[in-house]
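Task card 7
Instruction: Convert sequence to structure tokens.
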Amino acid sequence: MPDRHTVLIVDDDPPIREMLSDFLQEEGYDTVVANDGASALQVLRQSAERINLALLDMRLPDVQGLEILRAVAEKGLDLPIIVMTAHGTSSTAIHSMQLGAYDYLTKPIDLNQLGLTIRRLLEHHALAQQVKTLQSKLNEYLIRERIVGSSPAMQEVYKLIGRVAASEAIVLICGETGTGKELVAEVIHENSARADQALIKVNCAALPETLLESELFGHEKGSFTGAVSQRKGRFELANGGTIFLDEVGEMSPSTQKKLLRVLQFGEFQRVGGSETLYTDVRVIAATNKNLEREVEEGRFRDDLYYRLNVIRITMPPLRERLEDIPLLTAHFLDRHRYRPGLPPTKISEEALQLLMSYSWPGNVRQLENTIERAVVLAQGKLITAQHIALDSPLTTDNLYNITQRVRTQTPLATIVQEVESLAIEIAINQARGDHEEAARALGLSTKELEARFRELSARRLANLPSAAGQDKER
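Output:
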């Protein structure tokens, strides 16, 4: 906070403005004066950041003081206001406090009381700001406790979660399978104003169209074969809370249309019903599809896409944040202990390098499964490369990407490095971490393979090349 606080004095009576200004300056405050509501609002528009407090007369020549209070509240300004009036009534006092006034003083103003009130107000405001800052830091800490990673890509995710969690905005979480989209939805809900209400999850890809509509919106008795009783849908159950629509890109056109109506008007009808129901729910959606392409190809409604794409959080694939693998590995070793009560299993440097050199098509979920399996295979002892079971990363998609790189004029040296990296990775995986066997398969000496493996690992960590052949930032 600044060393000297600035007080805005809003009063149409010149002698009162001068008296208050002189008194506050003697008390060590800077002052700015306004003789009507329009002037006061102009000051706030131009320099609200330097005003720490306002003294507001309730009766001004152009507007009522209540209108100023309302305008400050609507603009979201964090400005403490003390109301002054010579015509105090209970209703005016109540309305002032409801609109956010800190205190209500009657004229003639007792300057000693005013000075005490201002000191108390500023102390209270400073404490409130400290609490707000600490709460923000706590929220960020809690987010990081739930989601593991310190890479620049994840830092951006944390910041975005922190900004949007407290709002009511719809959030669309995009990313490949296994990147942690559901976990992000949970963290957003837990840090929102709806945290004490339900978080209802629906996997839109797990149910056929007719069942998905019933799951989301409920159904009436007899609406279809097997509907032996009325059933509430997930939107009804989530009223007051949050609904998480996973794999929203898998919805049929019919279900998309009904979802759009809920997002637009908060209303829906059960399957087989005619009664219009209403729900107050925050929507978080997730997809592993390119919804823009789905819209272009006519499989996803453009109006629904624009409704969902208010706040977008893109989860980076694990191959683009390889530097997070040591943290993730330690986290999963702590979670998946060989037996309850035992310390976390340790992992060798060679095994960790193997994890760091893999492309992880299944992302964080695949890494967790790999670590859990390795703990069992190692029986809680040191995990070595022989305990790391990885699928071959060389797929039709990889080969297609190489073709694409040639078409996009990717330098030959880059393509050769990537192919060499894949070949060494496959050989080591097939040899279950045995470098001597892997070297024989590639016609190299063990020493030469290990040197190339270290060089490729270091280069990959430094440059983090993506599957599209683009350089990634560390």
